[in-house]
Amino acid sequence: MSSNPIDSPPTAHSVSPFPVHSRLLLVDDEPLILEGLSRLLTARNYDVVTANGGRAALVAIGKQQFDVILLDLGMPDLNGNEVLRFIADRGIDTPVIVVSGESAIDAAIRALRGGATDFVRKPYEPEELLRRIDNTLIQRRLERENNHILQRLQQSEKWHRFLVNSSPDFIYTLDVEGRFTFVNDRVESLLGYRRDDLLGQHYSLLVHEDDLGRAEHIFNERRAGDRSVRNQEIRLKCNPGMRRPRLMNGLCKSVELTATGMYDEQASAFEQRFIGSYGVAKDVTERKQAEETVHYQAYHDLLTGLPNRALFRDHLGLMLAQARRNQQPLAVLSLDLDHFKVINDSLGHTVGDELLLAVSARLRQCLREGDTLARLGGDEFAVLLPTLVSRSDVEHICRKITQALSKPVHVKGHEVYISVSIGACVTPEDGEMIDSLIRQAEIAMYQAKSRGRSRLQFWESGMQAPYSERMQIEADLRRALVHNEFVLFYQPQVDALSGEVRGFEALLRWWHPQRGMLSPGEFIPVAEEAGIIVPIGDWVLNQTCAQIAAWRAAGLPPVRVSINISARQLETPDFVETVMRALQVYSLDGKQLELEITESLLMRDFESNAIKLGRLSASGIRLAIDDFGTGYSSFKYLSRFPIHTLKIDQSFIQELDREENVSIVNAMVAMGRGMHLNVIAEGVESEAQLLRLQQMQCHEIQGYYYSPPVSAHEASELLSHSMRGFARGDRLATG
After folding, report:
1. Residue 238 region, left (φ>0) first, then alpha (ψ -120 to 50), else beta?
2. Which end of the chain has the lower number of beta carbons within 10 A, N or C?
3. 535: cis peptide before it, omega within 30°?
4. Using CA of residue 412, residue 414, residue 415, residue 419, what is the dihedral sign?
5. Are residues 525 and 620 in the same domain?
6. Most distant pair of Cα atoms in the chain: their distance
7. Is 691 left (phi over 0), alpha (psi -120 to 50) or beta?
């Protein structure tokens, strides 16, 4: 090997720009060269490691990383080319500067092909070698920075693709012709197309035919200046060949589209060049379906699918305007099924609903094209008849309706007969106001019912007064709840033999500010129709519990009190909880409260009622069948309810002077005793009736023979003397 080429130290200004951060490996079999290079590079603040041959170099490379390797070629143990091969085979990216005395060009070419970064021929100037090292380190630093930037770009692109393809929205780009140049993965789950199916296809492939006219604007095709559209709704077609129907609802998806034009940034600010568009489509199908459902429910009856009152009013308003223009009369009909409540109570809601569906179908068949049939609620329907010639047209259509509904309806194994009462008013003589026409038709319908049912009644001006009175009662009832105008009276239930007070029935009265004391028959039907019977029933429940607690606090003997339960109360989902809460508030034993329920109400929703009443009975609350003998139940079904008491209806008691009625009442008492139930006879007014009932071994008596309903104070006096019982001379006056 040639002599040491380093004849002088570096100049004072030659200070390395790469201080201790750069580590260099010097490989040469000449000790003097190693020593001189090491001194030169150390003075430049490089971290220097030396190897005196090829094998020593491999050991050093295996132990640590280097920023640059200075490698001699001609070494006896392992030459430089073999070291280069070792470095290349293991993918080590450390730059290698070959420093060799080989003069042949082939040696340099072979070294560079073997992976060397640079080739320096000995002898060399120290400053030249240092410059080569510095350049190599600079290049290495730049490569590392570039690699870092590239990795960040690749990671950014990776995240971008991940976010785009993971987006719940359909993202796309279009070229200047409106053809897809990119779609994300969402398109497959949304529309059933694979990405490759759409690339190169025109966007119109996806657009619903009825939306094509708007699509050019929405997809932002060739629009400069107005650069974007936002939140525009459009329908996109699903792939008709898609075999995964669970991925879509129907053949189209509703989307909310935001699209932005893309322009060449290199073009002149005055001459923007459109290069395509970018868009995001958000799936709003479920929201649209929900909106449509809400809208439908707002204007239609959910059972029959007919228009409801709101939609009927809209149709009536439109037809009134048309009738005025054409100077033609129109008619409004109000239809109510006769005795539907009896059918509903006795056969149940399911049969009642099926009957309403059958009635709706028959009514449709009776009407002309252009007529409107609506269900206003319950068993009440309304019909709008435009383009009439005279009232005889109304009479003709109503005859068709009554004839169609006179035929029996077969529902759930039952043959049901039904009729309809119809009220009608005709424009312009009966007015032209929407609400007035509907109200007048309803009033005429109620008049039809009061005059024998199953008939047509036209509106007459004199019908307004009774209807106005009913509306006034409803308004007064709502005020009565707020102003505490209701009061409870208590009628004693007395042991038929001893005369001892066993309990009371709480009876509701209304102390009306103008009309005085009103009995339930004068206001309960209105409360039921107006939907305020439930809060009234809740008031009765809580007031009764409060009175029982007051008697207990006064030291009076414990007594049960019964209250009547309406159908609306029993049907409320939280009925059981309402009753239990009232008992808890006043710390009452359940056996002190008895709930009276009619036979027809009991059978109205058999399974649900059995569950509710079972829960109440398990808490000790007593249950009574009110007005027994007037309903439609059977002993078989009654035995499945947790009943404690049978109350024989007063209509049977009042005719005990007839032998056939004696047999019926005797059978009722015997049946009740046989079922181990407490039997109470209602409406007992004479001694003869009492004697008959005593002979039948009826347990308790309730009626004016012993006492009319009395105030809470008078009931307290009865309780205080209850231990000695009623003597016949102790009966309260009935005045």
Report:
1. beta
2. C
3. no
4. negative
5. yes
6. 152
7. alpha
